[in-house]
Amino acid sequence: MLINKSIKELSSLLMKKEINSVDLVKESYNQIEKIDNKLHSFITIREKKEVLKEAEIKDKERKNSSSIIYGLPFSIKDAYCTENIRTTAGNKILDDFFPPYSAAVFNKIIDSGSILIGKNNMDAWGHGGSTENTDYQPAHNPWDKTRIPGGSSGGSAIAISTRMVSFAIGEDTGGSIRNPSSMCNTSGLKVTYGRVSRLGNIAYASSLDSVGPMAKSVEDLSYLLEIMSGEDHLDSTSSRTEVIKYSQLLGQPIKGKIIGLPKEFFGKGLDPKIKKTILEATIIFERLGAKIKEVNFPHFVYGVSIYYLIALSETSSNLSRYDGVRYGGQRELFSEETKKRIILGTYALSAGYADKLYKKAQKLRTILIEEYENALKECDVLLAPVTPSLPAKIGELINDPLKNILEDLYTGTINLVGAPSLAIPAGFAKGLPIGMQIIGKKFAEKELLQIGYLYQRETDWHKRLPPVIET
Amino acid sequence: MTKISKDTVRNLAKLAKLNLTDRQIDKYSQDLTAVVGYMEEIKNIDVSQVSETSRVTEEENIFREDEVKPSLSQKEALKNSKNTHNDYFLVPQILKED
């Protein structure tokens, strides 16, 4: 199976003409035809004939100077506008929406020569952590089809873990890249707010939304990040901070680095099996020369409330643009979960409650940012679980409103702070993947990738394939 | 504990331009009461000395020259609309005749 190889290996084989992009694209479609009817990782799959033709052209036009991702098959969460390719954000309102322009991140990947296979399934508008709240078919976890793959970028994580694509672009508002990466045994990076342009990303909550890469390994993520990042004049929140050649800085020792374990992230509500797995990872980090130190986040316990009050207020405002006039269908087509989120956001913003709820949450956001900055004065990065529990059975979360939001306990606060966080595989329990996140200071993607890379050199969790794959 | 009554849900739905069925109003009232009940944990934290954060980017005052640049054509901008008239978007009537 070619797509099991790393971006670097594939690129090298393509350059030496030992393989070609047509082979890779054929493998993508074979895999999709074989298993995606059971997993539903795609909402839209491009016409195979058209894509094969594109691959032939790529093979002909490949140069020595071509990008490392030139000619590789990839997929993108359906939250990104793709010119003349249907873009639904997982919702029937946009069932027949064909964007007149493409997202900035999509253009960067396409300009580097990668080949789009299709648009990945997601919780509608990013509203969920299970890829069940989609108006298309709910997605299934390739490690156990009776369970959720996580979300909201669940389709992208499935496509990577089953090697349908070489990599994918996800989006993370409160955990939407990290959560499915953890549940499907893939690697995903929520970047610093502003590191990657949001232009053309269908907004969930604008002060939290982050564009990020999803892939099989930290090494692959680092190649993608250096291509995706940078300032965009059409996104005034994109950062002018210098883009580093992340891939060239991997492999540096982490001896003497201090890894903080935030005490509150390991408290009530965390599955003991997940706790045990992450504590086992600390032993590997210590072996690599890092020091482990406990740190505190007194207001962390309020994180979910603060996150939801802000995210839902913003989403009720963002989704008000769907009026069916310029594009899209009527508001009746919003799913149940989305209607509930709009109502709750409207409540938090409405006269009489805005001060008590929305503004208070914004003040608490300031406190969280301060606590976070203080913790990172004492250590270089933080190590934490991604989700409190193993992947739930399908139907379990969507029918329990409170349990559903508590899934974002460990991820949502990072978006409130705007910091980067890398989610990577850390082990298994009952045959189900467990991920961990390495969280850093703003624009410290380099450190996160270095630490994650060394961990993946010492372990093989990220190389394990789900049982649904016949190798 | 705050109860999100059916009347509150009905009013919020009107503000958010959502038509809800009686069954939905009933269900949302229950679900939102549970979620808002949980969120009330923030009620008693003292934040009187804290200022609000609405964004986390350090960038500010991003200026550019006011130049005309290529953008979407009228045809492209209108292509996803189901109702157009003389190259305009056609919106539902909101003013009634006397």
Number of domains of chain A: 1
Low-confidence stretches of chain A: none
| CATH homologous superfamily caption of chain A | Amidase signature (AS) domain
So what's the overall shape of chain B? flat
Low-confidence stretches of chain B: none
Helix and strand sequence of chain A? HHEHEHEHEHEEHEHEHHHEHHEEH
> Class of chain A, according to the CATH hierarchy?
Alpha Beta
**Helix fraction of chain A?**
25-40%
Task: Give the DSSP E fraction of chain B (strand runs of 2 or more residues).
Answer: under 5%
CATH architectural name of chain A: Alpha-Beta Complex
Biggest sheet strand order of chain A reads: 1-3-2-4-6-5-10-11-9-7-8
Mean pLDDT of chain B: 91
Total strands of chain A: 11
Spatial extent as radius of gyration of chain B: 23 Å
User: How far do the termini of chain B sit from each other?
Assistant: 47 Å
* CATH fold field value of chain A: Amidase signature (AS) enzymes
Number of alpha- plus pi-helical segments of chain A: 14
Strand content of chain A: 5-15%
Distance between the termini of chain A: 7 Å
> Whole-number average pLDDT of chain A?
96
Structural class of chain A: alpha/beta
